[in-house]
């Protein structure tokens, strides 16, 4: 375990985030959402210290996006390298060095959605703190909730919920997957009860969390993408290719499953109607598919400049069939100025006003028809793109800071759980 770098107490309050991995914008949904919260915390004047509990940490040091100090439970920093301190972390490091990433096949039905901390890890969390009082303790999902026992002196304890995990598990089971660990509603309620305040990723989750933890303050903070609220209808729309579309995804099970479903059951019908249809795929999900197996599909892998790639695309897709929470890839699409064709699962949790920049289609035939229709009706694809201008302010940094400030104000001026539930009703 890396000892924390001493921090001079300069009067600024200290916020500690206990998280699985170093948060990175655009790396994956959880990392992007943690950055949404961290940027808001920093904007309120807190100094930051991160305690990284994950096993996949060894290798070259990655610079954080915000000024902070960092402790790692399973690695020690030596110069510009992190060396594993546990057998599990060492095994992950060797696997990564050798490139031994096993693809998720259609028959791989066990879906790992998280990892609870061991008692030993909880104890080491307490030893990873800077030698100053903790004013604000932030915990990344219920899987790290027990870390609050290691930091009992924290003035405020806030859960970054990310999701309603027992609902995620139910969604995975309904699609034939075995979620691990299997989170039930009672267990999730026990974990959420450890916190004074909870950050929900959408209003539906806020209402559910308020019922599970009636004594906690609950607030919705929508995910932020770098240029949210600054989206403009691009000049040079002539660069758009009406039959070219985009997909972005990590290696998460719901992404792999959804894209596989699209390529096997939807894409052939699209190509039958639009022979020159082209799909650009970016992100870690590309590692789960073989290049050249699908006509009209280009796997780009991780892309640093998504705008350069998507400026030629007419719209994006999110054929997700399972999961819960809010789909951050769609916020990425909107902030890139792209509308989207998605499923009801993909649309869940998004604000209904102003007019959303996405269409919803369920089932193979309807999804294919929606994609073909948007390719052939260029005016409709353009309308979806235009809607992103008024829609993306929902996901702005300014909105996140305002909601966090409200959450951290004295309890007498913060809405009760009952009002949170009432506000989430249609």
From TrEMBL:
SUPFAM superfamilies: UDP-Glycosyltransferase/glycogen phosphorylase. It comes from the Bacteria. This is Uncharacterized protein.
């Amino acid at each position: 375990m890396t000892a924390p770098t001493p921090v001079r107490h300069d009067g600024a309050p200290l916020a500690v985030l206990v998280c699985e991995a170093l948060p990175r914008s655009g790396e994956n949904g959880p990392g992007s959402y943690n950055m949404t919260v961290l940027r808001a915390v920093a904007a309120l004047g807190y100094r930051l210290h991160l305690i990284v509990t994950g096993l996949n940490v060894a290798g070259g040091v990655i610079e954080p996006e915000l000024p902070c100090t960092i402790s790692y439970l399973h690695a020690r920093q030596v110069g510009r390298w992190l060396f594993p301190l546990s057998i599990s972390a060492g095994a992950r490091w060797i696997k990564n060095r050798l490139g031994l990433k096993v693809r998720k096949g259609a028959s791989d039905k066990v879906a790992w959605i998280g990892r609870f901390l061991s008692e030993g890890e909880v104890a080491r969390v307490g030893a990873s703190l800077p030698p100053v009082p903790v004013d604000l303790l932030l915990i990344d999902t219920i899987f790290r909730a027990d870390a609050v026992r290691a930091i009992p002196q924290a003035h405020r304890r806030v859960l970054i919920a990310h999701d309603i995990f027992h609902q995620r598990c139910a969604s995975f089971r309904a699609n034939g997957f075995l979620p691990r660990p299997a989170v039930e509603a009672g267990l999730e309620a026990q974990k959420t009860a450890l916190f004074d305040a909870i950050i929900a990723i959408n209003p539906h989750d806020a209402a559910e969390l308020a019922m599970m933890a009636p004594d906690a303050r609950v607030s919705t903070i929508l995910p932020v993408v770098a240029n949210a609220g600054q989206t403009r209808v691009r000049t040079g729309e002539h660069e758009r290719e009406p039959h070219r579309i985009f997909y972005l995804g990590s290696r998460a099970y719901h992404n792999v499953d959804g894209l596989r479903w699209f390529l096997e059951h939807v894409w052939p019908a699209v190509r039958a109607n639009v022979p020159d249809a082209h799909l650009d795929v970016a992100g870690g999900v590309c590692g789960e598919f073989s290049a050249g197996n699908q006509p009209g599909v280009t796997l780009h892998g991780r892309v640093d400049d998504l705008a350069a790639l998507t400026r030629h695309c007419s719209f994006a897709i999110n054929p997700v069939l399972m999961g819960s929470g809010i789909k951050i890839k769609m916020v990425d699409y909107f902030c890139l100025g792209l509308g989207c064709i998605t499923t009801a699962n993909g649309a869940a949790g998004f604000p209904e006003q102003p007019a959303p920049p996405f269409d919803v289609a369920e089932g193979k035939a309807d999804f294919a028809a929606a994609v073909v229709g948007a390719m052939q009706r260029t005016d409709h694809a353009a309308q979806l793109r235009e809607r992103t201008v008024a829609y993306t302010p929902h996901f702005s940094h300014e909105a996140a800071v305002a909601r966090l400030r409200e959450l951290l104000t004295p309890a007498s001026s913060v809405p009760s759980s009952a009002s949170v539930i009432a506000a989430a009703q249609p």
